[in-house]
Each structure stands twice: as C-alpha cells, then as structure tokens.
Fold this sequence. Notes:
- It is a single chain.
- The protein has 330 residues and is an alpha/beta fold.
- 38% of the residues lie in helices and 24% in strands.
- The protein has one domain (4-8, 61-112, 136-320): 3-Layer(aba) Sandwich (UDP-N-acetylmuramoyl-L-alanine:D-glutamate ligase).
- α4 links the parallel β5 and β6.
- It is globular and about 55 Å long.
- The model has no long low-confidence stretch (mean pLDDT 92).
Amino acid sequence: MNRILGIGNALVDVIVHIGDEKLISHFGLKKGGMEMIDQERRRNIHIAIENYRKTIVTGGSTANTMHGLARLGVPVGYIGKIFDDEFGRFFRDDMISGNINPHFVFSENEDTGIATTLITDDGERTFATCLGAAATLTPAELDPNLFAGYNFVHVEGYLIFNHDLILRICQLAKECGATISMDMASYNVVMLNLDFMRDLLKNYVDIIFANEEEAKAFTGKEEHEALEILSDYCSTAIVKLGAHGSIAKQQGTVTVIPAIEANCIDSTGAGDIYASGFLYGLMNGLPVEKCGYIASRLAAELVETTGAKLSDAQWQKIRAKALTFNILHQ
Length: 330
C-alpha cells in the first residue's frame, strides 16, 4: 500500500471571537489581514484573549492535508518542529489520535507555532501568526531514515522561504524514489521566490497544486494557459478555481473538474482537504476525473462548516450517503 509523508509548519490554530475591533487596534493589526508576529507579541495577545471564547485546533497546510488522508485510510507520517509546551503536546496528541505517525523535532527555546484568528462581530477574520518552533527546522535535523518506506512526500509552499530546508527535503525524497507533491500555498510566496520555485518544480516536484492567484503569479497567465505552463514543469498539475471547480493536466490530457454546489460559510482549509482527496485518488490509481471528484466533494463539505477539518459526523455523512459513488475504499 502507498504511504505518504507530510512535512510542514506545525501550527496550532487558536480561533477567538472578540466582538469589536478594540483588540485588533490595540495590537496594531490590520483588520482582515494576516501578519507574522514574534513570540513576545503572540504571548501578549494571548494574555489579552485569555477570558474570551475560543476554539483550539491543529493547523498548518500540510498537517490539514495529512489529517484528511488519514481519515481516508491512507498510511500517513508527518515531520514538523514543536516545543514541549501545552500547544506542542496538543499538536502531538491530535496527530496520534488522527492515526498519523508523527516524527517531531523538538525546539529548545521557541514556543510551538500558533496562528491566532481574531473574529469580529461582522464575521471578519484577522490573522496573527507566530511560526515559533516551526520556523526553526533545519536541514541537519531531517533524519534520512524517516523517508524510507514512503512512496509520496507532500510539502507546503510556505517552507520555500527556507530554501536549504525544502531543497534537502526534496533531495531526500528523490533518493528514496518518492513522488513529490507541493501546494503553492500563497501567491506572495510564489512572487517572492519565483526563480527558486521554478527550479524546484523543474527538478523535483511531480504534482503541483495552485489556485488561480498562485498560478498567475508563477506564469503571468490566466488559469488555462497557466495550467499548460505548470504541466511543463510537473507531470500532474492542478489549478483550483474556487466556485468554478478546478482543472488538471496529466500525461497531456486536460480534465475539467466541475464544482460541487455548496453553501460556503468558511473556506479555511478547503485547498488543504482538496489536496487530500486528489492525492488519495492518485495514490489508489484512480483516473484524474475521479481524483478531482473526491477532492471537490471533500472541499464542498468543508466550506459548509467552520474550521479547517471535517467532523466525525461529516465523515460518516460522506460515506453513509455514498457521495463518492463507491470510489472510496471501505
């Protein structure tokens, strides 16, 4: 059976309903934006929100994708860096309970990474992310033996800020004969690392996931032309088009994947679980149209709820209603 190893920023998502905008202004955040913050600023924000209603879940793009794959029955491993603190133990326990085999590196002095989401009464989300320990993973801390036995390796584009790290990951994966998949993560990640990303895709990446903005940032073209260019770099290229579905190209064939109608409440994590479904299909030898259907079905289910993961009840619903037309293995 195919096995997949995910490597990414190990983050805990802390989602807080704060009411008005006073806290956002107090900490100098831009409402509706995403800002990277340091450890001290993160601690001060968390002191301020101590008595607010909050939801705490594990996060990070790759971790979300690995959770989805594990729920689909795929043997999954995960490499990330945490600290032995409350949030680090929470992340570890969630991985284990999610049937994911964790291979953690532990920081000596940086807190576990936390992405804090501040939600105001109008529904607007403001993000303050402290990568903490996650950002300190180094190439030297990667154990080559951990890659053995994994047929697929999945990385998130956010790791590309550390050129040496992601390059070493890809080298170790190829030395083990693994297929490498990558999610581009964000258009600004692409723009800031364009030349390096081109080399990475050309020399290492086999499967690339991009949304419209990321694909345009990489190619300068709109979605269909962008897909053609991406497919010149990677054997399987997927461009996600949101409510308009997605398109993929593999072995010279373009497949249009229709969107599945959904009442979108929260799109957080939709791209991550889309990757779960698509990779599940590829790992089980399914044709691209079925890979895309599974991916779209999972994403449509996710956007109808709040948060980046499907609940137990939602997974049961997917199977019980046979929404995958018997293409999921039981």
